[in-house]
Design goal:
- The structure is a single chain.
- Strands 1-2-3 form a 3-stranded parallel sheet.
- It contains 14 helices and 3 strands.
- By secondary structure, it is mainly alpha-helical.
- The protein folds into 2 domains: 3-192 and 303-333, Rossmann fold (3-Layer(aba) Sandwich), CATH 3.40.50.620; 211-299, Tyrosyl-Transfer RNA Synthetase (Orthogonal Bundle), CATH 1.10.240.10.
- Bound molecules: tryptophanyl-5'AMP.
- Tryptophanyl-5'AMP is lined by residues 5-9, 17-18, 21-22, 44, 47, 133, 136-137, 145, 147-148, 150-151, 192-194, 203-204.
Length: 336
Amino acid sequence: MKTILTGIRSNSILTLGNYLGALLPMVRLANEHSREMNVNIFVPDLHSIISSVDGNLQENIVRTIKYYLAAGLEINENVHIYRQSYVPAHSELCWILNCVATMGETSRMTQYKEKSEGRDSCNVGIFDYPILMAADILLYSAEYVPIGEDQFQHIELTRNIATRFNNRFGEIFTVPAKTADQVKFMEVDNGLRIRDLLNPEKKMSKSTAAENSKIMLDDEPAKAAKKIMSATTDSLGKVKYDMWAQPGISNLLQIEALITDVPLQDVISTWAGETRYGDLKKKVASSVSGMLSEFQEKLAKISDQQVYELFEAGEKYANEVANAKLAEVQKAFGLR
Ligand code: TYM
């Protein structure tokens, strides 16, 4: 059986960018495929500690899984939910892959370059983070890894490491699909990147200080609607999807398509040529606030207990699968 796998760091409340770019696509794919594929959803808690954590990490971990359930994730025997640090094979394989990956390829990762620029005190975890991510994926032979566009480079790195390893030791790892095929599998037109509402050249990120630049999943729906109404647009006066010339308007069209689950091309056609940006903003504001009310209502009904039960079953499964793959790798290197 093929495997779909993804993880979201739980350093804080998540943004609408995480929700629309990764969580919702994963939930839709999981519900569509979990009868014929394994669906692994894990919390990369070891990735969380590379940077500061807002609030309590344990609470954040549990809340991240509640988000998937509130977004409609259906549970069956092929859906596996686990915490990375409860499956020690992840760290073990990370070390082994450190001895396969090169400093050159890891240094080229954009996220590392951005986070470390001009800082000698940058921790080694930030540098090594994509190798741990490769271990997360390769341990479970995952073919599809639904993620936002900012993570594509890490998938390509994972593919390179797996291919190099297989060339040396034989076909031990499943090489995940190319990013172009990942995008096709996710049924989106291109990689997803929800933009900062005030500065749409940048991605929406929880670390941006300006409150109105991002929508957090615990924002009051009315407050979120106001943020959409005050989003930066342009002075061209015509609704058109053009990420280069009109990133603010294109972002709103993208948000509307993802929330209403209508193909982006159809949303673009509906609004083509419209001159009043206010009308588009009102529609998107209403979609976002409606989505948040429903989501927050569902979230409040999910208990911690439900999540811990999922972890118990998921971690038993994950340890079995991961340890078996780790043993193959250890044998290949002569460690066993
Ligand atoms: P993280 O926690 O930074 O982000 C989680 C997911 O949210 C997506 N995302 C966005 N998508 C669209 N628009 C945005 N503005 C936006 N902001 C965030 C990210 O692309 C990501 O999919 N390294 C990963 C976590 C991870 C992982 C893995 C993922 C660790 N191991 C193995 C997949 C498979 C990360 O830090 O994502």
